[in-house]
Amino acid sequence: MSKVHVLMVCLGNICRSPTAQGIFEHRVRERGLDDWIEVDSAGTSGWHIGEPPDPRSIRAARERGFDLSGQRGRQVTEQDFDRFDYVLAMDFQNLQALRALCPQNYGGYLGRLLDFSSDKRRQDVPDPYHGGSAGFELVLDLIEDACEGLLQHILERRPA
Ligand code: 4NP
């Protein structure tokens, strides 16, 4: 069975998309699907290349049992569209940047992670970088919920 590759994308690749990668990887692993689904993350900016996630993100995620500490920042490239079946932006600004980079013939899914959320009123994961700890908790709440929906979506399309 061919693998499914999922890329989570935000602006800095130190807060939201590492959180999304860490949570989705955790869910995939606990269901024994890690031979089939691979997860990565990147930023639309190159501001934090090679850096670990923001300590506030690492701490907030760790309190819910998710380990982000091994991740390092990188910038999304056009070549990512060759590799990834799902390219999932955290907000509309990220999505616009990805649309500008995306080849016209891209056959995968380019959209927002919250397309898979159970709460259709929210489309964006708000950037927590300049705010307080409540922002990091909201990021976790929104991403945990949407990752469940994303996993169900992928499982429904699993080849027999
Ligand atoms: P992220 O958050 O896009 O969720 O990683 C940010 C991280 C850093 C900056 C902005 C947003 N920054 O301005 O450096």
Which structural traits does this protein have?
160 residues, alpha/beta, Rossmann fold, 14% strand, globular, binds 4-nitrophenyl phosphate
Q: Indicate the CATH class.
A: Alpha Beta
- Which stretches of 5+ consecutive residues score pLDDT under 50? none
Classified in CATH, the superfamily is: Response regulator
What number is the mean pLDDT? 97
What share of the residues does DSSP label as strand, in percent? 5-15%
Instruction: Report the principal-axis shape.
Output: globular
Estimate the helix proportion, in percent: 25-40%
Based on CA atoms alone, the radius of gyration comes out at: 14 Å
- Cα end-to-end separation: 9 Å
Explain what the structure shows.
The protein is α/β, with parallel strands linked by helices and 160 residues long. The protein has helices at residues 16-30, 55-63, 80-83, 92-101, 133-156; strands spanning 4-10, 37-43, 86-89, 109-112. The protein has one domain (4-156): Rossmann fold (3-Layer(aba) Sandwich). The chain has five helices and four strands; from the N terminus they run E-H-E-H-H-E-H-E-H. Helix 1 packs across helix 5. The model has no long low-confidence stretch (mean pLDDT 97). Bound molecules: 4-nitrophenyl phosphate.
